[in-house]
Specification:
The structure is a homodimer of 346-residue chains. With 346 residues, chain A is α/β, with parallel strands linked by helices. Chain A contains eleven helices and 15 strands.
């Protein structure tokens, strides 16, 4: 099934609850804005592109529930819903990107009836999903051009089908390569504190028959030093105009290690992840999450005394100088990124 | 109480079972060689210096249990016990160092009676413990000379009192500084997969009233980038003649990050950790541990599908070029280490 979909009656959004993987594959249906917000905040749905698709479907469902014939009232209500959903996670740009795109559609359709606009919103949300499938496929093709049969790739967090629509971004070339009979080996960082690498990446690759080895985040340096890694592929939540890239906490460590060991590091994501309004990574807001995610979540017992403070940033920013290339559906952009990324939008 | 001690009747070794911390403080008594081996392998006692003290006490207890009047038979039995205990963990040099020291004593005392030698072995094991206390104090003083009031230190794994006798090595300067009223801040890496940083370091520092913040291993780059870290202090399990240092997995990552961000990194440990027989880090055997430590230990549910492979090295080697200084009880050694470390033994 699809990772993010509308119900058959289009009255809710259906997702695989990713917090329960890999031990349980359960789908849940979300029909209220509070449920939708909670699902994003608690990472039941996650991955920048998947959050974008989810936000679009969610806003359509909320629009369909809105009872008014007045297009201005309709727009005003939808804007409130969008603003509310947008507070669920601050770092991934795809959330605000998808919500803005849906709101813009209403703004440019104010000469139409509310019912007509609801239909347009439905089509737009499906279009956002379909575009993502096409983008992931294109990203996968471009990414695959960077590696060869027998290569071994290190990845961090999860940027596979669960994080997108199909194929994924960072995992896309690996799944596409496997489909074509290539023999690829993947090392997956477990990605503390929420273990997306263990729970989702190793799960997706293992299910797809890809040779995957799980390591703790602090073991990446060793597999690099052992000469086992040909390239690092990571996803992205927001890319600034200069190429600085916000992605899951730990990505910048992988990038610094890769630089030290002379291994190329590629960031893979759709152009919708590029935010030219952010000049550099300093402009990207980094989400700080609950300290208990470090100390007690997943664990049978607390791992540190109750009073011990934790610092729990959800993302970090990787300096553009550490990035060998940024792979989007339009191709591979390289340094200087200020020029190469701007060119993607011309 | 002491972290590693003999029972009052000297018929067993008493340790705090470190696998139960921080939720439970329980002491256990070990009287057979199988129990002693298991305690080291399963990290009930851990930390290179503490393992050395534990091995010395253990060999004394086993010697005392040995019923023979023939000194050659006695030596032969003790050698077998020592060889057996020595297989419990391959990387920390202090284990073989302490066992060799005890065996050498028997070899040079063959003109004495077995009962006399048993008494000598008792004194030697207590001496190894007492020397460690003095060494940790000296290391702490030297380490403290490298930092000033208000500084913030990042540490990895646990090299505190629990890993030694008193004060510790990497944590020694911080605990000594705190005793003297200095205001120091510590960031502790949780240290996957066995979480010694969370369970032991944050526990020891918190109990001692030191301002400690726990982070996941993959967050060290962010606190460094934020400008929050003045120096990194780490322990060591074996130091090669050229300064290459084996320490808990993840240490080399901290060192590469510190180099990248221009932060000094100091290795702290007694000279007994220096193994001049190892020319470089390539000569140090790295222990590979059970894959389940990554996937299921501590966790309420498995974190990855049953079939997923894991790679679980317990240590890594930090290149000497990444080490600002090696702090022993004799002072601070700096590059070129081949000369400065050799000078410690002249």
């Amino acid at each position: 099934m699809d990772n993010v979909a509308l119900t058959q009656k289009r009255d809710g959004v259906v997702i695989i609850d990713q917090t329960l993987l890999p031990t349980e594959e359960r789908t849940i249906t979300l029909a209220t804005k509070e449920e939708m917000h909670e699902a994003i905040y608690h990472l039941r749905v996650r991955g920048a592109p998947a959050i974008g698709i989810f936000a679009a479907f969610s806003l359509y469902v909320l629009a369909d529930q809105t009872v008014t014939d007045d297009i201005d009232v309709f727009l005003s209500i939808l804007k409130k819903h969008a603003d509310y959903l947008n507070t669920s996670r601050p770092t991934a740009v795809n959330l605000s990107w998808a919500l803005s795109r849906m709101i813009s559609l209403v703004e440019t359709s104010k000469h139409r009836s509310v019912e007509e606009v609801k239909q347009l919103l439905y089509k737009e949300s499906v279009e956002i999903r379909n575009e993502d499938i096409a983008m992931c496929k294109a990203i996968s093709e471009h990414g695959l051009s960077l590696i060869k049969d027998g290569d071994s790739i290190l990845t961090h967090c999860n940027a596979g089908p669960l994080a997108t629509s199909k194929y994924g971004t960072a995992l896309g070339p690996l799944l596409l390569g496997a489909e074509r009979g290539m023999s690829l080996k993947v090392f997956a960082d477990e990605t503390r504190p929420l273990l997306q690498g263990a729970r989702l990446t190793s799960y997706e690759l293992y299910k797809a028959g890809v040779d995957v080895t799980l390591i703790c985040d602090n073991m990446a340096a060793v597999v690099m030093k052992n000469g086992w890694i040909n390239a690092c592929f990571v996803g992205c939540d927001r890319i600034a105009a200069n190429g600085d890239t916000a992605n899951k906490i730990g990505t910048s460590t992988v990038a610094i290690l890769a630089k030290y060991y002379g291994i190329p590091l590629y960031v893979l994501g759709p152009t919708s992840t590029i935010d030219l309004n952010c000049k550099t990574g300093d402009d990207i807001e980094i989400e700080l999450r609950d300290q208990q995610e470090i100390k007690s979540k997943f664990f049978e017992k607390p791992t540190a005394p109750e009073g011990v403070k934790c610092y729990n940033p959800a993302f970090d920013v990787t300096d553009h100088a550490l990035i060998t290339g940024i792979v989007t559906e339009k191709g591979i952009s390289r340094y200087p990124y200020t020029e190469s990324l701007a060119a993607l939008f011309e």
